[in-house]
Each structure stands twice: as C-alpha cells, then as structure tokens.
Design a protein that fits this description.
By secondary structure, this protein is an alpha+beta fold. The protein is elongated and about 55 Å long.
C-alpha cells in the first residue's frame, strides 16, 4: 500500500511539473527555429500576364516583441492607362504557417464583389493585419499560441507566408468574358527570443 501511495505521489508531481512548464510558454521554441534557415529573401515578386504581385517583409529575422511588417502589392504593367479588377473585400490574402509547431494562422475575409481601378505603374498596396482564430475543437496549445499572437505579436518561431492575390478582369465591360488571376508566392522569416 505504501508503494502504491509513493508511486501515485510521483505520478501526480510529474504531471504538475509538466503542466507548469508548458502553460503558454513558447520560449523553448527558439531552439527549434534554429533548425530552420530563412530560404527566401524578404521580398518575392512574380509576374503573370499584365500584373506584378509582390510579397514583402522588412527583415529576415525579428526579435520577440518586434512589430513584424508584412505587405503585398499588385501592379498593373499592361498597355492601357487603367484596368479594373474585381475581388472580395481585398484581392490580397496572407495565410501563414509557423513551421516549428506546424500551426496555421488562417486568413479569412468577407467576400462581397468589389472593384478597384489600378493605374499603370502605380502599385496597390496592403499591409498584413493580424488574423487567425481558434475553436473549441482546437488543442489547448494551439489556442494558447493564437491568444499569445493576438496579445503579444508573433511568438518565437519560423514563419512562412503563403501569400496570394485573387481577382478577375473583364475583357470587355459589356461582355461576361473574364480572366481569372490567382497569383501565389511565399516569403519566410524568423522571430528569435
């Protein structure tokens, strides 16, 4: 009986110590992010048809607590002076994956049909705004990560932004002919302790 109580005490203490060590603490992730190298330069650019899509972050590496700046641009480079694009609330999407934990920071938006007129050579630019959420079916660790992200910014880790721009152009205002564009690229960065 004494051995059983001793074993039970040992198990309880082990669980208590393990619980205290993992409660919202993301500091131990920095060692895992050291296993990753930033693969891309902080700026990616891709041309498709008459459009150039750029995805940019200011630095390859940030320190925990820094404001991480990410933005996207869409530039029209075709023959006309202007072109009208049709899109959801924004043509820009910024889904992010934190690779050391394999956590998705989703990016959702309302989907009304809006239009924007682009002038040749003048990029349309939008900065990333915090996104992501969790539900009751998500694990506690993921919910804690998202809460920390919303309250304190990006926790230490290695991040890949799998950005894209999604819109269409009507070939003629009087016709239903349209050309769809879904241009994708990615950038990555680290957040260190």
């Amino acid at each position: 009986m004494r051995e059983f109580k001793l074993l039970l005490s040992f198990i309880v203490i082990t669980f208590l110590l393990a619980g205290c060590g993992s409660q919202g603490n993301f500091d131990n992730i920095s060692s895992k992010s050291d296993d990753y190298d930033v693969l891309n330069i902080p700026r990616a650019e891709i041309t498709e048809g008459d459009f150039v899509y750029r995805l940019v972050t200011e630095k390859e590496e940030y320190q925990k607590g820094d404001s991480v700046k990410i933005y996207a641009e869409l530039e029209y480079i075709g023959d006309k002076e202007t072109v009208t694009i049709y899109h959801a609330a924004s043509p820009f999407y910024f889904p992010i994956v934190e690779k050391t934990r394999d956590y998705d920071i989703s990016y959702s938006m309302n989907e009304p049909l809006l239009s924007t007129t682009l002038k040749k050579g003048e990029p349309l630019r939008e900065e990333y705004k915090k996104s992501g959420g969790y539900g009751e079916q998500d694990k506690k660790e993921y919910a804690d990560f998202i809460k920390s992200f919303w309250e304190n910014g990006f926790p230490a880790g290695y991040y890949v932004v799998e950005g894209y721009v999604d819109f269409y152009v009507q070939s003629n205002e009087d016709s239903n002919d349209k050309e769809d564009f879904n241009i994708k690229t990615q950038i990555d960065f680290k957040v260190n302790e």
